[in-house]
Amino acid sequence: MAVTQGADLERLRSLHGIKWQRDEGDVLAAWVADMDFLPPPPAIEAVRGIAERGDFGYSRAALSQLPEAFASWQERHHGWRPELDKLRMFADVLQAIDLSLWFHTEPGDGIVLFTPVYPPFIRAAEHGGRRLIDCPLDRASGWRLDPDRLEACIDDRTKVILTCNPHNPTGRVFDRSELEAIAEVAERHDLLVLSDEIWADLLHPGSTHIPMALIGPEIAARTITISAASKTFSLAGLRTAIAHMGHVGVADAFDAMPSHAFGGLSTPGCEATLACWTQGESWLTEVRQHLTEQRNRLAVRLAQELPEVGFVLPEATYLNWLDCNPLRLDSDPTAYFTEHGVALSPGSDFGPLGAGWVRLNAATSSEILDQIIDRMVAAVVAARA
Ligand SMILES: Cc1ncc(COP(=O)(O)O)c(C=O)c1O
User: Fold this and answer.
1) How far is the CA of 167 from the centre of ligand 1 (A)?
2) Domain containing 305 — which CATH number?
3) Chosen domain end from 228, 257, 279
4) Averaged pLDDT of the chain
5) In the chain, what is the straight-line distance between the N-terminal and C-terminal CA atoms, in Å?
6) Residue 385 confidence class, pLDDT cut points 50, 70, 90
């Protein structure tokens, strides 16, 4: 069975999820970070089993097995063995991030972001009178982190570095020297590091993900690593995430909350996540191969047919960060592309540096990706006419 099964327009248009529901008419959805493929068979079996048994009662079986399944997955794939007693479950990655920021910062405190960046990070960093400290990645070097820029942006009220690695939207995978630069600054200025590693398993060949907590014991003790199976295995609606609380102060703040303050996790989310972390490897291998083919296909076609568009090959994720400014369409080219039948994410949502950029989600079939590119090319031709 092809791993891209399910990425056909008839099925996609019948789905209830936001990706294919939001736009009316003949619009191809290449925006929000959901894949078009069916999730791995073990995840579908897990949820189908629950439905067929009518097994909707309280359950703790899968929940109690998830920390070990996550630790073992991390050890097999990234050489990091999280400590089981530091793992906490959440309904989603952003819940863990928002609450960590809430516990660790006061109004006026600064939170460093490597921009352009995933829009909810911007909202989280600006919430409740906190201060977003903008540390742009360096476009000229292919979105590398600039250690001097990082050092220069820290002030005496900076409290947190909030990062995602691999990085959304650029697809960069930070190398050891970049992670050591973050660690060095965090240790010198006594900062908390929130390391969202949700994209760590969707690597293109030649890239290696290094968990922040592996850089050394000192940084591990000031890092909260957050992850989930949702991006890797296309389970975003099932709301299950996990965090490794390396920072004792933040862990204590979480543990001091009443036990039901964050709500419980859903059984389907726990069971599907467990199925993926224990039986999802072969599916993932095939999906990664397909996603790399998609990235390369996009790169070749853009170079031939829309050579003005700026594009640095992503090292991970299925997201593609495209500079459409040279096309001179509009400050938000997504509205124009939507009129021409392609829904992309507006770059301006990712911070001021994203004006005129778009993010293209290529986690679909090669046929649909070709149609997306065909429509973008036709839109540009129409704009020039
Ligand atoms: C960097 C990053 N973190 C968190 C999320 C949200 O993940 P979830 O909804 O599974 O918590 C996303 C979704 O695209 C993301 O790109």
Assistant:
1) 11
2) 3.90.1150.10
3) 279
4) 96
5) 44
6) confident
Tokens of 43: 């995840």
The alpha carbon of 10 and the centre of ligand 1 are apart by a number of angstroms equal to 27
- The neighbouring-strand residues paired with 322 are 311, 358
209 C-alpha to ligand 1 centroid (Å): 17
Give the nearest ligand 1 atom to 228 CA.
10
Pocket of ligand 1, beta carbon within 6 A: 33, 92-94, 118, 164, 168, 196, 198, 228, 230, 236, 241
Compute, in angstroms, the gap from residue 378 CA to the centroid of ligand 1: 32
Range of the domain at 123: 45-279
User: How many domains does the structure of the chain reveal?
Assistant: 2
Where would I find the H helices in the chain?
Answer: 9-14, 18-21, 41-53, 61-78, 93-104, 119-126, 147-153, 176-188, 217-220, 230-233, 248-255, 267-279, 281-305, 333-339, 366-384
Residue 365 lies in a domain: yes
Whether the per-residue pLDDT at 357 is higher than 90: the answer is yes
* Torsion sign (Cα): 43, 89, 93, 222: negative
Other CB atoms within 10 Å distance of the CB of residue 237: 12
Protein residue whose Cα sits closest to atom 7 of ligand 1: 93
| Residue of 35, 70, 94, 167 to test ligand 1 pocket, by largest number of atoms within 8 Å of CB | 94
The answer to whether the pTM exceeds 0.85 is yes
Token pair 């540096």 is found at 353
CA 384 / ligand 1 centre spacing (Å): 37
Q: 279, 296, 328 — which closes off a domain?
A: 279
Rounded distance, CA 172 to CA 280, Å?
Answer: 24
Burial of 270 (C-beta count, 10 Å sphere; 0-12/13-18/19+): buried
Tens of pLDDT, residues 25-71: 999 999 999 999 999 999 999 999 999 999 998 877 888 999 999 99
